[in-house]
Amino acid sequence: MHYKTLPQKKVIVVGAGWAGLGATYHLAKQGYDVTLLEAGPQPGGLVAGWKTPGGRSVEAGIHGFWYPYNNIFSLADELGIQPFTPYTRSSQYSPAGLEVESPLFQAMPYLPSPMGTFVYTQFKRLPLADRLSALPLLYAVVDFDNSDDAWKRYDGMTARELFKQYGVSERLYKESFEPMLLVGLFAPGEQCSAAAAIGMLYYFILAHQPDFDVRWCRGTVGEMIFRPWVKQIEALGGKVLANKRVSDVQVDDNRVTGIVCTGIGGDETFEADAVIFSVGITGMKKIVAGSEVLRNRSEFRDLQNLGGVDVLATRLWFDRKIEVPLPSNACFGFHETTGWTFFDLNALHDEYQDEPGSVIEVDYYHANQLLPLSDEQVVSLTQKDLAGCIPAFGEAQVVDQAVVRISQGVSHFAPGSYRYLLPGTTSLSNVFMSGDWIVTRHGSWSQEKAYVTGLEAANRVVDLLGTGTTAEIIPIVPDEPHIQTARTVNKTVRQLVNQVLPQLWSY
């Protein structure tokens, strides 16, 4: 008796960042005929690295790998790569000088959350009375449990309104919370959703004492992580195709049957049994705008209500070594509504350990007013800002440079945006979503969230098409017992109040 081999199910993944690569990798391991389409010249999206004409490595900003990134760290182990630095200490500067130094929190005696963060963070100027003004904010932290109801309660409020409502002093807000928002959510407090602010601050800083500890890639993420990852995908039979810009989808009976890419040579169609979109907000809006099928559906059309934040990334090579006390640094107060960070790449990247002069990466967030500047103006501004933190930078000469402008490059969690963020499933039965802006109950943020939602999308494909096993996703570490108890009590009280006075929570 002869058995006919069933053809492999075809899955198309759009976007080769953390989410798209994560989904593609798992599905390739499960035996699917999976094709990953990337609009850019190489996988990685905004974190893809490349070389300058002189052969020096550049990428679109530096990306940290925080202590709670358990899924990404597990992936690195599975790939057999060791791309990360040890955990590093960090500091914060203002035009007045050094403001904050953070220890390695995992090395300090453990204190119940959030006491470790409060006790061990070394503020140089911020008075204790201002720091204590944050205590009432703990109620909002307890009340926000990442549920759909919690997002709806807090998303309509700005982060600035939230901190003011809970009595945070103006100085603490200006010198601590808003700088965190500018480098965590990439926008000033009046432009950030209170829900996103609480969720981000809790995940990265407040949930567990070591969560603020961070390490870095020892080179560009594209070279050290994505390149070996793509090789593994291709070895499994997956296809990763660059320069494939999606322009439309083909639909039959509420199912997408093909993805259309438009190029110089005309249209090219990729057949699909399932589709995963893993692109950022800006890229997804462009796809929807060009697709009659997608823009006729309100969930996709409403994405026009979402936006991105501009980023300016500058890498400078100096003619001499300049002493930088700590390798990663955040800065505030230099530019209205713009935060920035700088990194000592001699300490972080293998390539620059023996460089004769300092190599410094400077990334500006919410940099819309800086993008029109010429490269020369950007370099001059960057050097001036660096000298405002470490005066020796003002005396050095820039011998090489790279300036990268990323318009609308990172997700903007604006007040009221939650209602327009897409869940992992869509009204099209075989189309799934992933990325750092997709609604998930996992609780993670940034790169870890993008990777996790990629795995979640792959699992939905497995459930739909019935081949293979689902990916194991490591949950975030549970809340500490006192936080769990406080949340249980708060939820019970809220439910009782809602039964008695439902109109209080009806808007």
TrEMBL record:
GO terms for molecular function: oxidoreductase activity. Gene3D superfamilies: FAD/NAD(P)-binding domain. It comes from the Bacteria. Transmembrane segments: none annotated. Residues 19-461 form the Amine oxidase domain. This is FAD-dependent oxidoreductase. It comes from Leptothoe spongobia TAU-MAC 1115.
